[in-house]
What we know:
3-stranded antiparallel sheet, mainly alpha, flat, single chain
Amino acid sequence: MADTSGLGGFGKHHSSSxxxxxxxxxxxLLAAIDAQVDESNKAAAGAFEFVxxxxxxxxxxxxxxxxxxxxxxxxxxxxxxxxxxxxALGHAFLEAFKHARQDVGARVADAAVDAYGDSSIExxxxxxxxxxxxxxxxxxxxxxxxxxxxxxxxxxxxRHGGDK
Length: 164
């Protein structure tokens, strides 16, 4: 007879003279499985509701001097920045923040490629979402190669197509 001690009592042989008693263990097992399924369904429903509620949560903060007001989403990401004395500054901050997030995402994608290889699904998803910082750097290298380290136009680099 197989060892069923790890089944929590469900696999133990029940000695009974009736057929109904012999299947009592199966009924208990099915009842326990049904209870676990119900518990999992409740947990999934709760998680779905939580995610839906998180979408609507906003946090607001203001500097002591009321010069800046910020609204963030549930992840803490700024979604609105108001600078009443300089209205364009709030928009500029959000634009810079967006670019910084894109940049860090591209760098994380590059790290994933380095760690997992460029054929891994994880790396591919990140590169598809954020791009690659290396690719962006390579694209901009030609434009930057025509300038020296002081930002001055390098005529020699221009004669050689940007390659020094």
